[in-house]
């Protein structure tokens, strides 16, 4: 659906269009001073004159930006100077108007559904809707601006660091705020606003600039990201509900990061990855101090983790050795079959159909909380006057695990092994011809990924308190895969984003739970069709999926070479 | 010895079911090198389509045996085939075709998405059709007089009529497939495309049509298998495609993927192996709880010792 306005119309109406757009923006701004809803139950309380609710105030940022984007270019090209070229004024204004309209539409729909009918939408809501439609119609008449070149602007180091710090602060604030929502409609409207802001900033070129700033200040970025993530429990005032979600997200993300090595870097489709997580979890459970554990030997957790990882990677070798020799498609099905074998076996090792190891479908309940170096993960602690509960303890532990995985991942990615993996992913025959030992490298990735899953599983066993076979079904593998695909195969950032979205949305949209899987299936098909490289794409990967796009190819190549020369001045010659 | 023949018959009828589904995997894989992960769901939709046909016919239960076998059953099968072929062609058109030149991982992930989507679609919306039962739990499949519950005694071996039906269906389909592939224009075009799609296109073959035909043939056989499954087990549910699809794929690999005869032989071997394993493996591991494990172990063993499958043609890795 693309509305094309002829150029002569655009030129003829350029000033009226701008005026109409600004009017639309002003109408939306004014509307927050009026009530949007008849009753306070829908969204937050939007029934007052002259006293906007928090959600209305957030929303107002979008029309405000819209007005600025439309008004500033009016001073003329001369006075804008460099600014005329650096920023994509018109395109950004278009995005801002569309996003404002979407947020208003979500709000109006939420009011209409929540209160039972459109009659409950008050004048403010209608005014905002009219303003939004006016703005969208007006910005359609603006000529498209060229791609923003904000990232080329030289900026002092302090400004770059400030940018990163502001970004991290926003992330922390946004995460705490978004987890705080109780009602699905509030959550949806705020989510629409966040998506809108992200789209506007992206179009403005802010992310391009941040990307350069982040590349230049890599250490500071990583450090501040961890400081922010570490600080997150302090924003929760001892509330367990959100920390439980947050720690689940981290366990899920850690597992997805392991899968990302196998799928994203090497291109091996593993559909039974959950079985390795399960192997780790069952190992840890059997070796725990639970009264139901079938092996009466409970080593310290450090030892258990290593055993769990080893068991998982041995299983990986067992499955990988025969199947990694044949075409990659077989691997997908064999791993899938392996996942089923694992689940059935765990179900059958109940003393009835086989030796008793797992208590069958009852699993192993009553697994005690972790105790590392005398630190009891089950107890709440008071740090800086804030209660830090059980979930926060696990959250921090998983944070450390994820940090380790990321360090390993990024180092591997740029090593001889990592380059071998990428070569295999892109063209196995060519890689083999160039002397890459494809079988050994694939097996290494497979077993290594399984090891990580085993480690994550051993923590999960203690976190979940009980381990049963039906926690480790195919659908969970599909979810992990979806996190990797959604976020962006082969990137750390992408997988973290994907895991967060996939775990957070079902938590907040509980009324939708019946349709969750349906949408999930649809999402995977649509992602593969329209954006197979994911939300945060790996540059090389993006090229692979859009190999006919010449422009993109040149762009990526230019960026890769400049980046590379910048980051690895010593690189050169043959690496493999 | 009776026990052996009894299990042989059980295994052959189970294997015919696998074989009918496996043909769909093998035909599609032979032409587009895609593991159509959603094929198990096509099988499920065939069964639900046949059930829907039965509902539309006014839920006939009291027809005489000959009338049921000659009219009711064929009509149900045709209804199932229409449903499954329509869904298979839609998925091909909207999900797989746009990805034909994408890296291999992409269509496989799409196939998983399609599979989950189809399962959920049936689960959530089947009951919305007026008068239809909710598909969130298993639905009892209509019994066809003359087949359901009837048995034949041959010596010491008791043969279910549903087993006879499944075996007969496989034989008929096999003959049809042989004729279709070797004697019709589309079938020969299919063979040509599977050998070399580019040259086939140069020879004037419409590759898109050939691929659609491959999906349609596979879906039709899967629908017949769906009806056979319903008659055999007496009920159908939205999840039935997952395990059956997995087994059928195993069968296809066992026989040599891309080879139609291989899929049939592989299916029969897998079915017999499964039936024998539950009888002749001693001790706890011979209980029926382990039969799926043995089937998959067989798959892994085949991949180790004979990756090209039992009737394996050469495996050419088309770069």
How do the helices and strands line up, and which of them pair or pack?
The complex is a heterodimer of chains A (576) and B (319).
Chain A: H1 7-12, H2 14-31, H3 54-71, H4 77-80, H5 83-86, H6 89-115, H7 123-139, H8 157-179, H9 184-204, H10 206-216, H11 218-231, H12 240-265, H13 273-286, H14 301-323, H15 328-348, E1 371-372, E2 375-376, E3 381-383, E4 386-388, H16 390-413, H17 416-426, H18 428-433, H19 438-464, H20 474-487, H21 492-508, H22 516-530, H23 539-545, H24 550-567
Helix pairs in contact in A: 2-3, 2-7, 3-6, 3-9, 6-7, 6-9, 8-11, 12-16, 12-19, 12-20, 12-21, 13-14, 13-15, 13-19, 14-19, 16-19, 17-19, 20-21, 20-22
Chain B: H1 2-32, H2 39-56, H3 65-96, H4 105-125, E1 139-140, E2 151-154, E3 157-160, H5 161-183, H6 185-195, H7 197-202, H8 207-233, E4 235-236, H9 240-255, H10 260-280, H11 291-305
Antiparallel strand pairs in B: 1-4, 2-3
Helix pairs in contact in B: 1-5, 1-8, 1-9, 1-10, 2-3, 2-4, 2-8, 2-9, 3-8, 5-6, 5-8, 6-8, 9-10, 9-11, 10-11
Mean pLDDT of chain A, to the nearest integer, reads 77
| Largest sheet: spatial strand order of chain A | 1-2
**Biggest sheet architecture of chain A:** 2 strands, antiparallel
Alpha-beta content class of chain A: mainly alpha
The shape of chain B is globular
CATH topology grouping of the largest domain in chain A: ABC transporter involved in vitamin B12 uptake, BtuC
Looking at CATH, which topology of chain B would you report? Answer: ABC transporter involved in vitamin B12 uptake, BtuC
Envelope shape of chain A:
globular
Q: Biggest sheet of chain B, open or closed, and with what strands and sense? A: 2 strands, antiparallel
Q: Which CATH class of the largest domain in chain A is shown? A: Mainly Alpha
User: Could you give the order of the helices and strands of chain B?
Assistant: HHHHEEEHHHHEHHH
Widest sheet, order of strands of chain B: 1-4
Protein traits:
heterodimer, A: 576 residues, mainly alpha, two-stranded antiparallel sheet, two-stranded antiparallel ribbon, 24 helices, B: 319 residues, ABC transporter involved in vitamin B12 uptake, BtuC, 11 helices, disordered C terminus
């Amino acid at each position: 659906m693309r509305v094309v306005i002829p150029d002569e119309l655009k030129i003829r109406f350029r000033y009226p269009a701008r005026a109409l757009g600004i009017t639309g923006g002003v109408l939306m701004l004014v509307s927050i001073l009026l009530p949007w809803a008849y009753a306070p139950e829908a969204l937050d309380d939007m029934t007052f004159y002259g006293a906007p609710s928090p959600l209305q105030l957030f929303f107002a940022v979008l029309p405000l930006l819209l007005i600025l984007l439309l008004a500033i270019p009016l001073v003329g090209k001369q006075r804008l100077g460099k600014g005329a070229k650096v920023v994509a004024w018109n395109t950004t204004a278009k995005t801002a108007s569309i996003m404002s309209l979407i947020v208003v539409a979500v709000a109006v729909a939420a009011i209409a559904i929540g209160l039972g009918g459109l009659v409950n939408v008050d004048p403010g809501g209608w005014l905002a809707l009219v303003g939004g439609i006016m703005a969208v119609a007006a910005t359609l008449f603006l000529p498209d601006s060229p791609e923003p070149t904000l990232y080329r602007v030289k900026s002092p180091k302090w400004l770059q660091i400030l940018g990163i710090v502001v970004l991290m602060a926003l992330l922390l604030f946004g995460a705490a705020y978004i987890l705080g929502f109780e009602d699905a409609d509030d959550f949806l409207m705020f989510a629409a606003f966040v998506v809108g802001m992200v789209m506007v900033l992206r179009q403005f070129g802010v992310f391009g600039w941040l990307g350069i700033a982040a590349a230049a200040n890599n250490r500071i970025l990583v450090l501040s990201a961890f400081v922010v993530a570490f600080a997150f429990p302090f924003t929760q005032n001892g509330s367990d509900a959100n920390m439980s979600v947050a720690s689940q997200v981290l366990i899920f993300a850690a597992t997805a990061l392991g899968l990302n090595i196998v799928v994203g870097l090497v291109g091996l489709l593993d559909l039974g990855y959950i079985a390795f997580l399960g192997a780790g979890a069952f190992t840890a459970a059997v070796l725990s101090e639970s009264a139901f554990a079938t092996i009466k030997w409970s080593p310290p957790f450090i030892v258990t983790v290593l055993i769990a990882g080893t068991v998982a990677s041995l299983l990986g070798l067992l499955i990988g050795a025969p199947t990694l020799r044949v075409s990659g498609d077989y691997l997908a099905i064999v791993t899938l079959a392996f996942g089923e074998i694992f689940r059935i076996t765990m179900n059958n090792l109940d003393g009835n159909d086989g030796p008793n190891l797992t208590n069958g479908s009852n699993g192993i309940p009553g697994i005690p909380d972790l105790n590392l170096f005398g630190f009891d993960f089950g107890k709440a602690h008071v740090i800086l006057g804030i209660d830090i509960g059980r979930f926060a303890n696990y959250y921090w532990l998983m944070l450390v695990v994820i940090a380790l995985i990321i360090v390993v991942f990024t180092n591997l990615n740029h090593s001889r092994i990592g380059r071998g993996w990428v070569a295999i992913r892109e063209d196995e025959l060519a890689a083999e011809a160039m002397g890459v030992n494809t079988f050994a490298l694939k097996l290494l990735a497979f077993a290594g990924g399984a090891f990580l899953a085993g480690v994550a599983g051993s923590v999960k066993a203690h976190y979940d308190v009980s381990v049963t076979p039906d926690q480790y079904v195919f659908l969970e593998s599909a979810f992990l895969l979806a996190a990797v695909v959604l976020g962006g195969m082969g990137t750390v950032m992408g997988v973290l984003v994907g895991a967060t979205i996939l775990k957070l949305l079902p938590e907040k949209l509980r009324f939708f739970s019946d349709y969750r899987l349906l949408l999930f299936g649809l999402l995977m098909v649509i992602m593969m069709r329209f954006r197979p490289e994911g939300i945060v794409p790996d540059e090389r990967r993006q090229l692979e999926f859009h190999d006919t796009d010449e422009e993109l190819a040149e762009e990526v190549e230019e960026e890769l070479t400049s980046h590379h020369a910048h980051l690895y001045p010593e690189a050169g010659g043959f690496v493999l | 010895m009776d026990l052996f023949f009894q299990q042989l018959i059980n295994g052959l009828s189970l294997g015919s079911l696998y074989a009918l589904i496996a043909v769909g995997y093998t035909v599609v894989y032979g032409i587009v090198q895609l593991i159509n992960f959603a094929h198990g769901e096509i099988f499920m939709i065939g069964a639900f389509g046949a059930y829907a046909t039965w509902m539309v016919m006014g839920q006939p239960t009291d027809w005489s045996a000959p009338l049921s076998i000659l009219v009711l059953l064929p009509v149900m099968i045709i209804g199932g085939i229409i449903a499954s072929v329509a869904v298979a062609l839609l998925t091909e058109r909207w999900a797989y075709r746009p990805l034909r030149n994408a890296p291999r991982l992409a269509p496989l992930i799409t196939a998983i998405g399609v599979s989950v989507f189809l399962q959920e679609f049936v689960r959530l919306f089947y009951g919305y059709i007026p008068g239809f039962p909710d598909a969130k739990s298993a639905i009892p499949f209509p019994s066809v007089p003359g087949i359901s519950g009837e048995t034949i005694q041959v010596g010491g071996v008791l043969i279910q009529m549903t087993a006879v039906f499944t075996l007969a269906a496989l034989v008929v389909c096999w003959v049809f497939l042989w004729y279709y592939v070797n004697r019709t224009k589309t079938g020969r075009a299919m063979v040509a495309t599977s050998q070399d799609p580019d040259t086939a296109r140069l020879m004037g073959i419409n590759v898109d049509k050939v691929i659609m035909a491959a999906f349609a043939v596979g879906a039709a056989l899967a629908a017949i298998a769906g009806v056979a499954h319903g008659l055999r087990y007496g009920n159908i549910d939205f999840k039935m495609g997952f395990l059956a699809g997995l087994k059928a794929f195993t069968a296809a690999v066992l026989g040599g993927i891309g080879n139609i005869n291989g899929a049939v032989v592989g299916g029969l071997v897998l079915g017999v192996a499964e039936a024998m394993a539950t009888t002749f493996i001693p001790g706890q591991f011979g209980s029926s709880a382990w039969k799926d494990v043995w089937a998959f172990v067989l798959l892994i063993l085949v991949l180790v010792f004979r990756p090209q499958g039992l009737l394996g043609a050469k495996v050419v890795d088309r770069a």
